[in-house]
Design a protein that fits this description.
alpha+beta, Trna Endonuclease, Chain: A, domain 1, six-stranded antiparallel beta sheet, five-stranded mixed beta sheet, 13 strands
Length: 336
């Protein structure tokens, strides 16, 4: 059977799943899971369980707010900011303006992240925690997987499928082998892990000439490896991009792109860049359009590797990445 959560990948789906669990706190089959998760978030004492509970979605735009009373007559408010594959963007400080007004309840706050927050995101959470009454506690992917792992064989299909799904995501986060496809969320995470853990560390020797990073391609379901020549500070310049969706199986493709580059820079430099690309036998320009309705335009994709490049092994893949980084640096020599 296909796993529901391979299709229900949005944060609203995970919100619904968590609220469904919490509201089944008194169910004879899964109530123990609900109480265990709430207990993890709210510091339940031994044998303490939920006596009554209400979940509220989008209270002051907070994903989930749980108002509950325990068998020890503790009154608790649990606020959850839920993230699947997006990041915190200074929401928590705004939420705290409302949460800090709560009285007569113990307040717990959880940043539930189906991923591992990077340093920049942790810094934003730390910033929020410097000026609020109660701290946001991060409950990240590996903690989520560790909690749900024992329930992969649950008799409840929803529970078992969510457990299988988050454990698959956690496995992808630790991936060190080149993925063969680029279709699912777990594929995206596996590619990012592969780029970050294997490919980027292997790209030594030219580290003083370029910077290399990986990131999700905006709203698109793939990840990119991006290379930019150093020496231009924060100025946008042409860059080399390798997309996971172009490198499935043994395929390989590298692109030279000019997105974000100013028209003035393109006016002064792009024609020289294209001339350099056309002189190199391993690169080509395709379908370049320089005018539209009498107006000069500057193409955003100016070059690409020629068809037929293949990478059967990790070593071959990394060698191709290095090859096109060197070609990119060569064509960028006259960019001023």
């Amino acid at each position: 059977m296909k796993n529901l959560f391979d299709y229900a990948t949005k944060e609203l789906s995970q919100d619904a799943f968590l609220m469904w669990i919490f509201n089944n706190y008194d169910d004879p089959k899964i109530g123990n899971i609900a109480n265990a998760l709430l207990g993890t978030f709210c510091g339940f004492q031994k044998d303490e369980t939920v006596k009554s509970l209400e979940t509220v979605p989008q209270w002051h735009k907070i994903d989930i707010t749980v108002w509950l009373t325990t068998t020890l007559d503790r009154k608790i408010v649990l606020c959850i900011e839920d993230k699947t594959f997006s990041n915190e963007h200074d929401q928590l400080i705004s939420y705290d303006k409302h949460i800090d007004r709560i009285e007569d309840h113990e307040v717990y706050k959880v940043f539930y992240k189906l991923g591992v927050p990077e340093d920049e995101e942790k810094a934003r959470i730390d910033k929020a925690n410097t000026c609020n009454k109660s701290k946001w506690n991060i409950f990240h992917l590996h903690e989520i997987a560790a909690f749900f792992d024992p329930y992969k064989n649950s008799d409840n299909l929803i529970i078992s499928q969510y457990a299988e799904y988050v454990c698959k995501i956690a496995d992808a986060w630790n991936n060190t082998q080149k993925p063969m496809s680029s279709k699912s969320k777990s594929d995206y995470i596996a590619w990012k892990s592969y780029f970050d853990k294997i490919v980027i560390p292997a790209l030594n020797g030219n580290g003083n000439l370029y910077e290399c990073s990986s990131r999700k391609a905006g709203q698109y379901p793939y990840v990119i490896l991006c290379v930019k020549r150093l020496g231009f500070c924060n100025r946008n310049i042409p860059y080399l991009e390798i997309r996971s969706r172009d490198c499935c199986g043994e395929d390989f493709k590298a692109l030279i792109l000019c997105y974000g580059v100013s028209d003035n820079d393109l006016k002064n430099n792009q024609s020289k860049l294209i001339d350099h690309i056309q002189l190199l036998p391993d690169l080509e320009c395709k379908r370049l359009v320089h005018s539209h309705r009498g107006k000069t335009i500057y193409p955003k994709q100016v070059g690409q590797s020629k068809d037929g490049e293949r990478a059967k092994t990790d070593e071959q893949f990394i060698l191709l990445v290095e090859k096109y980084i060197n070609l990119y640096l060569q064509i960028m020599e006259d960019w001023i």
